[in-house]
Design brief:
binds adenosine-5'-triphosphate; alpha/beta; Rossmann fold
Length: 261
């Protein structure tokens, strides 16, 4: 199983520090890690630093090899799905996913590549969109196509920035179940930034909480999401309860304390 280590990452935009020495627990194949934290905490910046779109001190290593020493085509490279995926309106969904799956080499399309696109669209139940232009999709449909573009590459490490933010409730649950299956069946290492703490409680093996560019807690979801942490990080009165089927969930009380920053 793949293991990614992230240690001491720092990023500044101009002279403004954003990440202040971020070290994550080991990110392992077969696990889903939820990256939590308020708006502007630095979650997207952390993803962009991990994949090398931003530079700064610190190290990222996959199975003991520093990421910066690997070629862009190396299978150990994490696949990153940003929060906002711009749509090239000229392409159809099928073409966009096919293009995303191309790992260099020839421009001709093999049967295996076309089959991989069809399989991925079917896995996400969006095969009916195959012939549609990207520019004519809804926000949620575009988000599903973004996921298809990530999954068609068959990654070992998947970094997803709020991948369910535009999806209806059924799609959210389906996508998170699919990620769970891919982690368990194929040993995929999934790191997902998500604002819905109840989804994190249900689907994540571990959570990491980022606040003002620093990790303030990490571990098993029910251990980390304590009333004290939720008060400190989000300024809300909330507590964990357990439903009759034994599933933990958060209830939020009325009072909200204004956060700084
Ligand atoms: N390209 C940039 N140039 C300058 N500042 C930036 C840039 N991108 C992000 N920032 C700033 O860095 C901080 C962290 O932003 P980031 O997008 O990483 O937060 P986030 O945790 O992903 O937030 P959200 O939950 O709202 O998506 C914010 O204060 C943001 O304004």
């Amino acid at each position: 199983m793949v293991t990614m280590m992230v240690e001491g990452l720092e990023v500044a935009y101009g002279r403004r520090p954003i990440l202040r020495g971020v070290t994550l627990p080991a990110l392992r194949g077969g696990q889903i890690t939820a990256l939590l934290g308020p708006n502007a905490a630095g979650k997207s910046t952390l993803f962009r630093r991990i994949v090398g779109q931003l530079s700064g001190p610190g190290t990222v290593a996959v199975d003991g090899r520093a990421l910066r020493d690997l070629s862009p085509q190396d299978a150990a490279q994490p696949c990153y799905l940003p929060q906002d995926t711009s749509a090239n309106a000229v392409l159809t969904v099928f073409e966009a996913v096919l293009l995303a799956g191309k790992q260099g080499g020839s421009w001709s399309v093999t049967d295996a590549e076309a089959d991989a696109v069809t399989r991925t669209l079917m896995m996400l139940e969006i095969e009916d969109l195959a012939g549609r232009g990207l520019g004519e999709l809804s926000g949620g449909q575009r988000q599903m196509v973004g996921l298809a573009q990530a999954l068609v590459r068959n990654p070992r490490i998947l970094l997803l920035d709020e991948p369910t933010s535009a999806l209806d409730l059924q799609r959210q649950v389906e996508v998170l179940h699919l990620l769970r299956d891919l982690a368990e069946r194929d040993g995929l290492c999934v790191v997902v930034a998500i604002h819905d703490l109840n989804q994190a409680l249900r689907f994540a093996d571990q959570v990491v909480v980022l606040s003002h560019g620093s990790i303030v807690a990490s571990g098993a979801p029910t251990d980390v999401l304590t009333p004290a942490l939720l008060q400190e990080v989000y300024g809300v009165e909330a507590r964990l309860e357990t439903c009759s089927r034994g599933v933990p969930f958060l209830t939020v009380d009325g009072s909200v304390r204004r956060r700084r920053g």
